[in-house]
Amino acid sequence: MSGREFFTALPVSEALAGFRPGRRTGTERVGRADALGRVPASAVTSRTALPGFTRSTVDGFAVRAADTHGASEALPAYFEVAGSVRMGAPAAVAVGHGTAVAVPTGAALPEGADAVLMVEHTQQTMPGMIEASRPVAVGDGTVRADEDVAADDVLAPAGRPLRAQDLGLLAAAGTGDVVVRAKPRVGIVSTGDEVVPPETEQLLAGQVRDATASALAGLVIDAGGIPCPRGIVPDDAGVLTRTLEKAAQECDVVVVSAGSSVGARDETVAAVEALGEPGVFCHGLAIKPGKPTLLAQAGEVPVIGLPGNPLSALVVFRLVGVPIVRRVGGVTLPPAEPSTTAELARRVASAAGRLDVVQVRVQDGRAVPLFGASALLSLLTTADGYVVIDESATGLDEGQHVTVTLYR
Ligand SMILES: Nc1nc2c(c(=O)[nH]1)N[C@H]1C(S)=C(S)[C@@H](COP(=O)(O)OP(=O)(O)OC[C@H]3O[C@@H](n4cnc5c(N)ncnc54)[C@H](O)[C@@H]3O)O[C@H]1N2
Ligand code: MOO
């Protein structure tokens, strides 16, 4: 893999498609109660069919559909009620020609029945007799024994993080635990002589509390990973190299923020290069904000160098870092981000060949762009979401309908 020059910024789509480190986490078995958001390592299949028995979907009377043919208000069909089915138990009575068995919603269909008449379409004429004022077709008011899930059907595909409804289906199928990918450990390194721990009470002029590491930890958790804070490294090439080396040995992904621009103290590129083969994949992405982004590999471990400005770091990590963390954690079917469409409240300019990420507030169906230097983190906390202007566009017009990806 060849290194690229900072000022030949790589399009984001090319970076996402081309940068594919082979690292994948191992597998582990987790109980269903702990499986929310976890990623099945292989497809989870059902041992049995569900519901497993033919089931009524209405309160009514199980009958043979043929016995109701032609039934109407004027000329009802008559049935002798042979008994009733209890919930949670097999039907004790069968349905024969001209007989009906009372069934509650969800009960097992009795032998001989092939449909259920809704109670509203029947009338009791005398004790033990009902009349049906409408016909039913075979299968009406029922679900088949394998209609929800057939034996060997996939309950949850490999690579798609488990959602609440997946856990429900696993429970219905009696699946108590799942083999999932281990959560990727993501080493988070902050750099800069001016960056101090967030716990610092009093700042000297020139100092800033480490904002990026805390926010990145949140995004890592969202992406299904485990944040592994590796502290703040001063502007010292040797210390940075050793910190990154150790992080690359102990983590599945390494993220380092700041020092990847072109200033005199920007040591990150050299430190990443020192990690060895295959090395730097690209230095510079065609994205605003976030141009000084570095993608590299230490062996199979992805190393992501983010811009120093916290806003830029978070924008890039969301677009580029989160997919990498997910992939390492075995995600092949990433969840869709929540989004809405809105009318752009004012024109936004953008350069062709560059992806622009515009923070917006959404008010009354309108997306109001928020502008300010990428040094201003409060822009992100004010935003409801963001609009992406892709590489081919040179801006968006006022009144244009745009897709806003929403922050959860
Ligand atoms: N001559 C040029 N200067 C700059 C360019 C450029 O292309 N040419 N790009 C600008 C852009 S865009 C960005 S973004 C920054 C990124 O530079 P670095 O990645 O080298 O980051 P630093 O200079 O170290 O830091 C930038 C800024 O962010 C603050 N920072 C850093 N880490 C943290 C943290 N963990 N928490 C809070 N704040 C942090 C740092 O104090 C600086 O103020 O370069 C521009 N310059
Ligand atoms: O890319 Mo800087 O990351 O625009 O603020």
From TrEMBL:
Gene Ontology terms for molecular function: metal ion binding; molybdopterin molybdotransferase activity
Cofactor(s), by name: Mg(2+)
UniProt protein name: Molybdopterin molybdenumtransferase
InterPro entries: MoaB/Mog-like_dom_sf (IPR036425), MoaB/Mog_dom (IPR001453), MoCF_biosynth_CS (IPR008284), MoeA-like (IPR038987), MoeA_C_domain_IV (IPR005111), MoeA_C_domain_IV_sf (IPR036688), MoeA_linker/N (IPR005110), MoeA_linker/N_sf (IPR036135)
EC number of this enzyme: 2.10.1.1
One GO process term, biological-process aspect: Mo-molybdopterin cofactor biosynthetic process
PANTHER family in the cross-refs: GEPHYRIN, MOLYBDOPTERIN BIOSYNTHESIS PROTEIN
Entry function: Catalyzes the insertion of molybdate into adenylated molybdopterin with the concomitant release of AMP.
SMART domains the UniProt entry points to: MoCF_biosynth
Pathway where it operates: Cofactor biosynthesis; molybdopterin biosynthesis
Enzyme class: transferase
Catalytic activity of the protein: adenylyl-molybdopterin + molybdate = Mo-molybdopterin + AMP + H(+)
A Pfam family recorded for this sequence: MoeA_C
Family of the protein in this entry: Belongs to the MoeA family.
Superkingdom of source: Bacteria
MoaB/Mog domain sequence ranges: 187-327
